[in-house]
Amino acid sequence: MGDHTVMNGKPLASIISVGMSKFGKRDGVCARELFTEAAIEAFESCPILNPKKDVKALFVGQMGESFEHQGHTGPTVLDWVGLLPIPAMRTESACSSSAVAIRAGIFAVMSGLYDVVMVGGVEKMTHRTTPEVTEYLAMACDYPFEQWQGVTFPGLFAMVATAHMHKYGTTEKQMALVAVKNHHNGAMNPKAHMQKEITLEQALSSRVVAWPLKLYDCSLITDGASCMILTKPELAKKFTDTPVHIIGSGQASDTIGLYEREVLTSLAAGRLAGEEAFKMAGITPSDVDVAEVHDCFTIAEIVAYEDLGFCKPGEGGRLVEEGATNIDGKVAVNTSGGLKAKGHPVGATGVAQACEVYLQLTEQAGRRQVKSAEIGLTHNIGGLGATGVVNVYKRG
Amino acid sequence: MDTKKLNVKGIVPPESKRLMGQKDLVVSIRDYTTYQFKAYGRNSRYFRALAEKKKIYATSCKEHGVFLPPRPTCPDCQSPNMEWIDYTNQPAHIKTSSICAFAGRAFIDEVPFVLGFIQMGEAKTVMSSVVKLSEDPAENTRMLSKLMKERRYLELNGLKVEPRFAEKPLYTVRDLWFQVADKNFLDSLKETLKPRKS
C-alpha cells in the first residue's frame, strides 16, 4: 500500500455521465449488445458530449469471456458502440472487474494521456445452467487447493458467516434483514433484476444453499452492462452542470485462497482499500451519506459495514437491525437494491455501483433518493476478497 | 508417471496423455471448456434465414453500403435503420483463402479444409467461410493434398463459388459453405489425381 497521495478533497477524475442496461435474464441478447444499451444511455444523458470526437479510450471489465466464448472484449464492444479505433482494453479482477476498470480510467486521466475516457463493464451469464455458472465463478478461487474440493462461492462465504456468528453472535435474522432491506430498495429501481419486496419470514424460510446462507442470502446470476464517462476534473463543467468528482480511490489485494487469511471475519482487501480511499479524500466513514457495498451474500454486507468503519467489528448485524443503513438512516447502503436485488453481472457490478452513487449525488434516484447526499462511496470485492476497491465520490 | 499403470481411458482426454509423461505432476481431470452456448441477439435474423429458408441476408445502409456478414446497426454511422436484403444469388468469388492443415480441437478431424474470404456482390465486407472443392470428403482431401503438395495455393484465389446449405441446419455459420464453381479448374485438377489402387 505504501505512500499514498493525500489529495484532500481535490478530485482525481470526474464523472459526467452514466448509463446502465436493464439488469435481469436477458435471453437472446449478447454481451456486446448489452454494453451498447448502457453506452447509448450514457451518450444520450450528456448531449454536449460528442462521443466519436471526445472519448479517447475505453476500459471495460468482464470476467466471463468463456460464458459466450467471446474474448478480447475491448475492441468487440468498442466496435458495437461505434468508437473504433480508439484504444480499448478489458480489465479483470473477478467480481470487481469493472471497479478496476474505474481505477484504470482514473490512471488514464490523471496521467494526462487522455482527457475523456469511457469505463464500463458487461456480463452475460444467465444462458448457462446454474451449476455451470457456479463452476465458472469458482475460477476466482485457488485452483490447486480450493476449487476441486467442491468449493462454491456460497460455500466459502458461508464459512465466513459461520465464523462471524461464532465470534460475534451475528444471527441469521440479521443477515436476512440485509436481504429484506435490499429488496425493498430494488423494488424502487426500474433497472433492477428483482423488483419485488420480500418479508423476513420469506427470507428466513427459503431453502438452504450452504448453511447459514439460504436462497435469499445470495445475490443473483444476472445479465447486465454499465458504463460511465470520466474526464479530467477541470473539464467536467464543460460537459455537464452536475458532475460527480472521484475524490478518493483505494485498492488492495489479499491471498487468493480464503484458507490462508489471517482472520475469517473481515475482508482485509476491502478494509485497506477503504482506509486508503478515506485518507486520500480527507474524510472519515461518518461523512459518507450513501454507499454501494459488495453484498454478493448478506454476510458480505455486514462484514463491509465493519471493514469500512461504519461500525465497530462485530456490530454489523446490529447496524442493519437498527435501520441505520436504510435509505433514511445514518448511511444509506445499497439504495439500488445492491447485488442482492439489482443483480450481480460480475463484470458490470463495479461501474453499476458508481452509476447508482452518481444518480444519488445528482438527485436523479427517483423514489430511492437519499436526501441531501453529498458524499458517496462504492465498495467492490473481487472473489473471496482477493481484491478490494473502494472509491469516494463528492457532488460537484 | 507410468501411464500404463493408471487407467487413463475415459478419465484423461487423449491429448493429455502426452502431459502424463512429464516429470512434474500434471493433472487433467476433465475437459473444462464445454459446449458453446450463446445468443445471436439481433443477428438472429441472419441465422434463421440461413437455416430455415436457405437464404443469405445482408444488411444495407443507405449511406454506407452493404455489409455481409450483416450488421444490425451500421458500423460507420450507427444507424439502426438497416435494410435486410437477400444476397443469396449474388455473384461470389474467393477473395483470398488458405488451406488449413491444422485446427482447434473441435475441427481437427476435418483437416485439410479451405478457409476462404468470399466476396459476394457489392458487400463492403467479406464472408468468412469453408470452401469445398468436392462434396465427397475423400475426394476433397485428395484434391487439397495435391494442391498442397505442389504448392499451388494461390490458384484458389479469384475462383467463382456458389453457396451450399446444410440439409440438417444447426443455426450456426456451418449451415453455409461455398462450393468452387469453376468447372475448368475442377475438371483439370481431378484429371491429375493419381488413380486409386483398386
Please give the most extensive interface between any two protein chains, plus how many residues each contributes. Answer: A-B, 20 and 15 residues
Indicate the overall shape of chain B: globular
Structural class assignment of chain A: alpha/beta
Rg of Cα set of chain B: 21 Å
Tell me the CATH topology of the largest domain in chain A.
Peroxisomal Thiolase, Chain A, domain 1
What does this protein structure show overall?
- The complex is a heterodimer of chains A (396) and B (198).
- Chain A is 36% helix and 18% strand.
- Chain A is α/β, with parallel strands linked by helices and 396 residues long.
- Chain A is globular.
- The mean pLDDT of chain A is 94.
- Chain B has 198 residues and is of the alpha+beta class.
- Chain B has one domain.
- In chain B, the strands form 2 sheets. In chain B, strands 4-5-6-8-7 form a 5-stranded mixed β-sheet, covered by helices on one side.
- In chain B, 20% of the residues are buried.
- At the A-B interface, helix 3 of A face loops of B.
